[in-house]
């Protein structure tokens, strides 16, 4: 059942998000023995590089890693719940994980979450089996995949009731892996760092745009990169001021991912049998301090723990209601069923069923055209990373400045092609809409020439424009034929 749901959802999407090209490119670098510098931990790209030894292509290895980890998570949750619960309760926990739309859909894309959760729950299972050193080593491996592994390790020592010997062994195991990885990161970047994601440590101010602007003083070239301590010191007042509202936003996503009927069972389980399985929930108190949007994928990271706690809560309810056992079984089953139906009727299901970030067939077609007509050493400037990824070319970010600044930046950056997606121009880069909608405007723009266009439906158009530095000062003749492709489809 878990496999069928995951494979069905995976077949319905491209398996890519904005972060996916980064992981694949890092895997390329690691496979060559080169530095894989990027704003991401290296564990998942390393797993992709290993999977490439037996699987072909640039996309299949990463998707296979995520799929195997997502299926393994269901088994791990069952085994962990079974350690202290009867088979029916363990099956409840595994079923909730198997049928959860977010856990199911994130088992297909080239993303880190599934591998992180599989490693985390391997650590919790090993710890429950009485092996704190091995658990610490596995938690260290989870930290190499995502920074939340550091918080999970702290939570495990806090909630694990391990005694000083067990806590020391777990900490030693974690330190072995974490220290080696921090050493690698610091060598790779030339300065001490705990995570490649230090840029997320800043005050989450209201109204702050997530869109990069060239004129943003914080992004001026030549400015020294602040250390983590400096970031924390500068961000502290804003973090404190915005903490409660951001916590509320993350709790809203959590309740969407784990509705009230399930949450009540989980709270009962947390009260009845607190323990290390609750360690991942500590991240809920940490994430409001970071400049990350309250997205469903972050709430998803709590779901396996909440599922195990819900199984414990269901068992506790049945035990407490010994005289009305049948009614207790029926009530817990009804709560679980209501939670599943509620989840599949809400935002998590909509994300699972409509996962792609834009018109992937059109963007893939544009990338394939670039691959056939360009060369791998050429640069593509684009707001999204998909077309450059499909083309196998280097990507640079398309900023959100006025039209003239944007085009001049494309010229200075050495980009050979500019890609404009219709849905991006409509929502994020309206200053580029004249290039799509106004033939005369295109004819009078000598610095850009449309060379490819595809549009299979409303809002799905993708245009590839050649950047022409030599023509910057040469206005195009008014009787010159319009750029090929833009007005006539492919």
Structure commentary:
This protein has 490 residues and is mainly alpha-helical. It has two domains: 2-353, no CATH class; 360-471, D-Maltodextrin-Binding Protein, domain 2, CATH 3.40.190. The chain is built from 23 helices and five strands. The chain has helices at residues 2-11, 20-31, 43-51, 60-82, 87-99, 101-105, 113-128, 132-145, 148-159, 163-189, 228-257, 260-272, 283-286, 296-300, 303-320, 325-344, 347-353, 360-373, 386-391, 403-412, 422-427, 433-437, 439-443, and strands at 379-382, 394-397, 417-421, 448-454, 462-467. Strands 2-1-3-5-4 form a five-stranded mixed β-sheet. Helix 19 links the parallel strand 1 (379-382) and strand 2 (394-397). Helix 4 packs antiparallel against helix 5 (87-99). The protein is globular.
Question: What attributes characterize this protein structure?
Answer:
D-Maltodextrin-Binding Protein, domain 2; 5 strands; 2 domains; 23 helices; single chain
Structure, briefly:
This protein is mainly α and 490 residues long.
For the report, how would you describe the main beta sheet? Answer: 5 strands, mixed
What is the spatial order of strands in the main beta sheet? Answer: 2-1-3-5-4
Our Rg estimate from Cα atoms comes to 25 Å
Number of strands: 5
N-to-C span = 41 Å
Return residue spans where pLDDT drops below 50 for at least 5 consecutive residues: 216-222, 474-485
* N to C succession of SSEs: HHHHHHHHHHHHHHHHHHEHEHEHHHEE
- Measured as a percent range, the helix fraction is 55-70%
Strand content: 5-15%
How many domain regions?
2
> What oligomeric state do the depicted chains represent?
single chain
Structural class: mainly alpha
Indicate the overall shape: globular
Averaging pLDDT over every residue, what do you get?
A: 89
Count of helical regions: 23
